[in-house]
Amino acid sequence: MSIKKKSVFTIHLGCSKNQVDAECILSELLASGFTISEESASAHYIIINTCGFIEPAKEESIDIVLSQIKEKKKSQKIIVTGCLSERYKTELPKEMPGVDYWLGTYKPGELLHLLGFSENHICETVPTNRINFGSFAHHAYLKIAEGCNRRCAFCAIPNIRGKQASRSIEELVLEAQNLESQGVQELTLVAQDTTYFGREKGKKGGTLQSLLEALLKNTTIPWIRTLYWYPDFIDDALLDLIAKEPRLCKYIDMPIQHASDRQLKLMARHYSQKTLYSLLNKIKEKIPDVSLRTTVLVGFPGETHEDFEELMTLIQTIPFNHLGGFIFSPEEDTPAEKITAERVNESEARLRLDSITEYQEDLCLERNEGLIGKTIRIIIDEVAEESEFHFYGRTEGSALDTDDIVKVIEGDAQVGHFYNAQVVDATPHELICKIL
Ligand code: SF4
After folding, report:
1. Which residues does 269 contact at the CB level (< 8 Å), separation at least 6?
2. CA angle (177, 179, 184) in 5-degree steps
3. pLDDT digit string (tens) for 145-168?
């Protein structure tokens, strides 16, 4: 039975890990003769890769699915994939009959199978030969593992993505080489818990360190970055490797969530305030020019003002370059739902977050202003939209899609290339530069 190869339009929502899944699905379809449509109206298949992590993300995903159903033509098929459909795989099909195909999180060949392709057609090549559909051709995410073995009380991801399943170092090296051949200059390693990479497989699984060593040996990608560290399995050897290897970005993203032992215990985060101080100090000692990113959660049940003060003290004692702050929102089917400790009211939680944000904004401005006159190394990400600037880019200390950017006000450059630049002005989250 011949299957009409038709056009596909994809809407990708959620995190970088979900983005890699969308790229795998698209790569399978392209390898099977489908074409990409630039707009949903002219596509035969509309794929919505959903996020189901927290309430606002769930609402956004549902709104987009409903709007696509409303605009759907007779000849079109809607396919919903990702975390929302994985999490609510029994409820949603009943509530949204306008969707033609429901898939959970990415499983190789599952959509091709649903579309009637034979088992032996299902291409073995993806994800190793996945096509980089990221926002920039010179940057790609490498998803090194699926799922998570931790059980942080506020987090629904283990329910959605299951237990940690690390990919093999051989497969990841092949995928990185494939991405490099597509022009990738910056590779960002992602997983729910990158520092636990390979650990669930015992010795044969390798570690984050051995993966980084294999990527350094088998590719020439200039910038290799890792996100989503958990404050565990961070040994001297790993930090020493990052410190000495110029191609490993001096960048560590480690969500701490809180700093009060009482709160960390309630959140089921398995480290102490003491561990955090010694770990963060060790990181700064071993990698003096490290750019530190973290995420904190305020307003978790039972959080007292004293607890919050302990968090504030840590943030003021060990300054972070980038900090994302969130207010706790109860997620169904998470351990936090059962915590009876006193809830923090919304306005108090908001006040706590605002004081962290205010402190961080001042710190970032002071830090960036301190760079005026200095020479920095940057990558050019894109041509600027604003007329007064030529290009936008980043330093090694800023991850794509989350951190500060560089705006080039003078000098010519090519997208995806590296340059030395002089900082001429600064705001809390931007460095204004001229190419040298
Ligand atoms: S480490 Fe904790 S917060 Fe992160 S994905 Fe796992 S359970 Fe969720």
Report:
1. 152, 231, 257, 258
2. 110
3. 999 999 999 999 999 999 999 999
Q: Which domains does the chain have, with CATH numbers?
A: 7-121 (3.40.50.12160), 139-368 (3.80.30.20), 375-435 (2.40.50.140)
* Cα–ligand 1 centroid distance for 193 (angstroms): 7
Local confidence band at 116 (pLDDT 50, 70, 90 cut-offs) = confident
Q: How far is the CA of 99 from the centre of ligand 1 (A)?
A: 30
Residue entry with tokens 């700064």: 284
Tokens 């930090």 locate to: 239
pLDDT digits (tens, 9 = 90+) for 48-94: 999 999 999 999 999 999 999 999 999 999 999 999 999 999 999 99
Residue 13 C-alpha from the chain's centroid: 12
CA 78 to chain centre: 26
Report field, pTM of the whole predicted structure over 0.85: yes
- With a 6 A CB cut-off, is 194 part of the ligand 1 pocket? no
From 18, 149, 152, 328, the mutation candidate for ligand 1 (largest count of ligand atoms within 8 A of CB) is 152
CA 80/CA 101 separation, integer angstroms: 6
